[in-house]
Amino acid sequence: MNRPPTIEWKDEKVFMIDQTLLPGELKILEIADHRLIAEAIQSLTIRGAPAIGIAGAYGLVLAANQYGGNDIDEFTAQIQDAAKLLVSTRPTAVNLGWAIAKLLNKVKEKNDINEIRSLLLAEANSILEEDYISCRKMGRYGASLLPESATGLTHCNAGGLATGNYGTALGVIFSAVESGKNIKMYVDETRPLLQGARLTTWELQQADIDTILITDNMAGHVMANGNIDFVIVGADRIADNGDVANKIGTYSIAVLADYHKIPFYVAAPVSTIDFDTKTGDDIPIEERDPLEVTHGFGIPTAPDGTKVYSPAFDVTPNSLVTSIITDRGIFTAPYKSLRDKILD
Ligand code: MRU
Q1: 3-state secondary structure at position 158
Q2: pTM of whole model > 0.85?
Q3: Active-site pick, 131, 188, 216, 236
Q4: N or C terminus of the chain: which is more exposed, having fewer CB within 10 Å?
């Protein structure tokens, strides 16, 4: 891949691609304050479940480094406040809370400020490293499901921009193509923030993959015309029973895929599975600012005063999910309990 990393730690700072500016401008932000990391997550400057987990982890490292005193209680309170702030930015993707909890757990009984700082940084680096490895694994597992020559449909962006660098759903596509398969992709635009149009097509073009952009309301038509052999998406949180929360619109595509008897695959690392959430009904769904719908990218597209409902995610019931591709292998319906299948 011929572009800077989605996110990295360098010179005591976090460097990340500003995804709100793509595809027009490839700008790298340099961030040294955990509050700015929280803002970057909230504004979708960095987005995608695994990527916000990594950003949150580095945010906590910054908070630890920003403390200037030597009082362990004060330091601990600052870390706890920063953790709360970072986790509160986006409620649906479980990777954010998972990453922060992982860091806090590492330093639970420690009392030395500098030791805590280095343990937090080591853990954040290892979450990023793990992400590289697990995306490659998912890619290989998922590629084995795809025919030698096929056309897929994806929604939103589950590529290198949504992870440390390679991608979950797009990782499967990259891996299939790297292994010599002939894969062509349709990409949903993904209203209202156009992650499909702006980010997924950008990534697929860079990888030289034959890509066709459609608006979200065209998916049924292309399926009915026999143009789609498989659907593949990422996930923000998967419940223990295999229900999948992902970008708003995913559920509609899953229903369409079921109707047209097209396999519907979800690719996500095990860190996206929330074993403590029994079903999709228990997954909190983030609601976004109505202006993202009525004034997308600053252009008014509805009369002033229009009432808006803008959930950022929806839940696809497990019965519509053909397989879940993880870094620990492929799980196929009926899922019953992923905890029993994966952890036991
Ligand atoms: O609102 P976003 O852009 O953060 O939503 C992202 C998605 O829904 C992705 O499909 C999901 O996080 C999987 S990313 C590998």
Answers
A1: coil
A2: yes
A3: 236
A4: C
Do residues 105 and 253 both lie within one domain? no
CATH of the domain at 282: 3.40.50.10470
Please write the tens of the pLDDT for every residue from 52-110.
999 999 999 999 999 999 999 999 999 999 999 999 999 999 999 999 999 999 999 99
Is there an atom of ligand 1 within 6 Å of 177 CB? no
Mutate to test the pocket of ligand 1, among 189, 199, 246 (most ligand atoms within 8 A of CB): 246
CA 195 from chain centre, in angstroms, equals: 11
Q: Whose CA is nearest to atom 15 of ligand 1?
A: 158
Strand order in the sheet with 329-332: 211-214, 182-188, 149-154, 230-233, 264-267, 323-326, 329-332
Q: Which of 86, 116, 135 is the last residue of a domain?
A: 135
Closest CA to 271 of 170, 135, 157, 83: 135
- Residue of the nearest CA to atom 8 in ligand 1? 247
pLDDT in tens, 165-197: 999 999 999 999 999 999 999 999 999 999 999
6 lines ligand 1 (CB under 6 A): no
How many structural domains does the chain have?
2
For the Cβ of 138 lying below 6 angstroms from any atom of ligand 1, the answer is: no
